[in-house]
Amino acid sequence: MSKQATAAPKVGFVSLGCAKALVDSERILTQLRAEGYDFAPDYGAADVVIVNTCGFLDSAREESLSAIGDALAENGKVIVTGCMGATPELIRSVYPDVLSITGPAQYESVVDAVHRALPKPHDPHVDLLPSPRNEQVGVKLTPRHYAYLKISEGCNNRCSFCIIPKLRGDLVSRPAADVLMEAENLVKSGVKELLVISQDTSAYGIDTKYAASQWKDRSVKAKFLDLCKELGELGAWIRLHYVYPYPHVDDVIELMTAGKILPYLDIPFQHASPKVLKDMRRPAASEKVIDRIGAWRKACPDMTVRSTFIVGFPGETEEDFQYLLDWLEEAQLDRVGCFRYENVSSADSNGLKGHVSEEVKEERWNRFMAVQQVISAKRLKRKVGKVIDVLIDSVTPEGIVGRSKGDAPEIDGLVHVTSKGRVLAGTIVPVKIEKSDEYDLFGSVVKTS
Ligand code: SF4
């Protein structure tokens, strides 16, 4: 048999978009590898290329279309999946030659398309051969020491600027036992930090009426608090993303103070003005949110609250914007991301009155960031002099970089670390914080023994 005939067929992969799309990519890659496919580092070396697209903002659609174009130009055999796959006619109108187009979370269809383009290898020595690194957890696109844990798909909310429910449908929660099995396997394989994600984490289980499933010797309900309790027993950092401030979120604060899950909540508030929130059709929008944050901080003083906001939403007046700035000053959030409103094809907000000019959006964004930078710098300064745990992300000749319990990967700040001894990526070390700026902390490893 020639070398050509025995070589595993190679798949190229481009993963665009959010953490949820990244989890979809990992599932597809895991399945393909279990079937004996190999992966190619570039388009030229691949036998077929999969592009997992993002279709959320118009700018993300452009990026996705350009990635498809590059893959077609350099390889010619391209399979498209992901959020933008929900509008196949748009992709076909630009690139009629793509082999197949499927929407988000349609893992089987993507794998079927690969089978059609590139028949499955039949070598029993290759088939189902797990990689030694990930034999229990599949392919991970994040570094080995942290992983995203997707607990549900879709969303029951209908925010006017968002097309996710149109793309991904209503909420579908995974059984608690499935989530816990995946989480435990990840931790066993060396993952130190699990980032719990979904479109609306605090709504987990509403669709299944909190159905219980058997996990080890007990039955666990698909309920936010119950899942957090179980995850808290795994011995990893558990970080909660996309949590809405529903009253039942108060219950997890106890788990944070007990050190079971990280004292960190990522709550996408998006705005503060009641009028804008109403036009946005945001869930759990209430004027009592500031009181709730205050109560959480009282119970758990180390808590980091992160959020994202949109400025320049249609109909946002200077008064609404000033309301948001005042709210921000009062809320004193630790970490904040801010986006200028952008129309998304087929989003309801496109039809709202009072679209804000690009200049005004830019000006408001700058004012917003200036206010938040001062708050963020003040919040971080409180950590100077303290010894905190830092999860080391990378050790390179340029330096050692990690994150504290208050910093999620990619979106929050970093801790720049110096050390007299050897420090390894993926380990948690105690660091004395010596300096801070608007975003990052700086400190040195404390000798432990
Ligand atoms: S909560 Fe709103 S913004 Fe988030 S996915 Fe659901 S509809 Fe979209």
Would you summarize the structure shown here?
With 449 residues, the chain is an alpha/beta fold. It has three domains: 7-117, Methylthiotransferase, N-terminal domain (Rossmann fold), CATH 3.40.50; 146-381, pyruvate-formate lyase- activating enzyme (Alpha-Beta Horseshoe), CATH 3.80.30; 387-445, Nucleic acid-binding proteins (OB fold (Dihydrolipoamide Acetyltransferase, E2P), Beta Barrel). The chain has 13 helices and 20 strands.
Low-confidence stretches: 1-5, 123-136
The tally of beta strands, per DSSP, is 20
Name of the CATH first level of the largest domain: Alpha Beta
Shape designation: globular
CATH topology of the largest domain: pyruvate-formate lyase- activating enzyme
**Taking Cα atoms only, what radius of gyration do you get, to the nearest Å?**
23 Å
| Annotated CATH homologous superfamily of the largest domain | tm_1862 like domain
Structural class: alpha/beta
CATH architecture of the largest domain: Alpha-Beta Horseshoe
Strand order of the largest sheet: 2-1-3-4-5
Euclidean distance between termini CA atoms:
58 Å
Ligand roster: iron/sulfur cluster
- Average per-residue pLDDT, rounded, comes to 88
Number of helices: 13
Largest sheet: 5 strands, parallel
